[in-house]
């Protein structure tokens, strides 16, 4: 039971750290989005894509060097490639929601754009958490195996040794 609760504690810490980095990333994303919309005449979805790319760069640094700093670092090129691929899918999800609201339903006031930008970030975040944790920032091989082996050894040392019966 201890192993499960420690696994749950690790997951809770991971979600909290992911949320902290992601929360600041959301502020970066929305801040850049509103800044670009305010200082340029770019269409809403283009401004959103620029903001998302800036937030992706910020988030990579936060995830690699804080949230997932204890994860495997041996294949940085592969890690970065996977991060960018899954981030691009998240970008499409996030901005697809905004695109649908803006061009599908005509909801394009600044408030509506921010609401649907935020909603798109939320939907994309679920995908990103799963994909980053499963494919990008993988657990070091053998960590769980080592914990399992230690648990088995502890149990075995606590068991009384069977005595042989001699007929």
Description of the molecule:
This protein has 167 residues and is an all-alpha fold. It contains five helices and no strands. Helix 1 (2-39) packs antiparallel against helix 4 (110-136), helix 2 packs antiparallel against helix 3 and helix 3 runs antiparallel to helix 4 (110-136). The chain starts with a helix and ends in a 9-residue tail after the last helix.
Order of helices and strands: HHHHH
What share of the residues lie within helices?
A: over 70%
Total number of beta strands: 0
Largest sheet, in brief, is: none
The share of residues in extended strands comes to under 5%
Provide the gyration radius in Å.
Answer: 23 Å
Give average pLDDT, whole number. 86
- End-to-end separation: 41 Å
Number of helices: 5
Structural class: mainly alpha
């Amino acid at each position: 039971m201890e192993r499960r609760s420690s696994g749950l504690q690790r997951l809770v810490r991971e979600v909290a750290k992911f949320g902290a980095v992601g929360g600041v990333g959301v502020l970066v994303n929305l801040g850049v989005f509103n800044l670009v919309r305010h200082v340029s005449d770019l269409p809403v979805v283009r401004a959103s894509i620029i903001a998302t790319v800036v937030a992706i760069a910020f988030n990579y640094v936060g995830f690699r060097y804080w949230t997932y700093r204890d994860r495997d670092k041996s294949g940085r090129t592969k890690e970065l490639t996977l991060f960018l691929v899954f981030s691009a899918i998240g970008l499409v999800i996030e901005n697809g929601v905004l695109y649908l609201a803006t061009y599908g339903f005509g909801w394009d006031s600044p408030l509506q754009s921010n609401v649907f930008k935020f909603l798109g970030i939320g939907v994309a975040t679920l995908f990103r958490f799963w994909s980053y944790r499963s494919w990008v920032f993988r657990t070091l091989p053998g960590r769980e195996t080592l914990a399992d082996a230690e648990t088995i050894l502890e149990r075995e040392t606590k068991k009384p040794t069977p005595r042989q019966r001699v007929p």
